[in-house]
Sequence to fold (199 residues):
Amino acid sequence: MKFSAVLAALASVAAVSAETFNVIVGGNSTLTFNPTSVTAAVGDTISFEFHAKNHTVTQSTFANPCAQMTTPTLGIDSGYVPVAADATSFPVWSFTMTNASAPLWFYCKQTGHCAKGMVFAVNPTAEKSFTAFQSAAMATAANTSSTTPSASAAAGGSASGTAGAAAASGSAAASGAGRVAGGAAGALAAVGLAAGLLL
Fold:
C-alpha cells in the first residue's frame, strides 16, 4: 500500500510541475498561431485560445501539412470554433501531451487558411523544422477538404471550454500524441488523491 501511495504522490508532483503553453489562434484577425511552435514534454498542456473568425486546430503530418492525419490513426481535431469579430471572451481548447518522442503538426482546416501558412508545430526538429513545414503548407493548393461558413454571424464564446472532449480524447489516445484536457482540474484531483492516500 505504501508503494502505491508513493507512486500516486510522484504522479501528482509530475502533474503539478507540468507546463501549460498558451497559443493564440487567429489573433488580431490574422491567419496565424502565436507562438508558431512550442517544445513540450509529456504531461504539458497546450491550450489554444480562438480569436475572431472560424478556425480549427487539426493534426496533420509533416509530409502532408494541409490534410488531417488519418494514419496510423485519426489525428486530434478541435472542430470549427467560430468567434464573432466583436467577441470579448474567447473559447479555449486544449490537449495534454502523452508522448513527446516525435514532432506533432497542426493546421487550420478552414478553406485556404493552411495554404496561407496557418500551421503550428509541437517539438519540431532540425530535420523537420517549423519553417520547412510552413513552406510545404504554403506550397499546397487551397485546402478543399471542407467548406464551412465564415464566423462573421457566429456568436462569440459559443464553443467555450474544452471542445470535443469525447471524440478527440479517443483519437488522441490512439495516436499517442495527446489527450484533450480540461485544464488544471486533473492536476488538482491528482494532488487531492495523493494527499488522501498519504493522510
DSSP finds four helices and eleven strands in the chain. The longest helix spans residues 2-17. Helices lie at 2-17, 130-138, 165-175, 185-198. The domain at 18-184 is CATH 2.60.40.420 (Immunoglobulin-like).
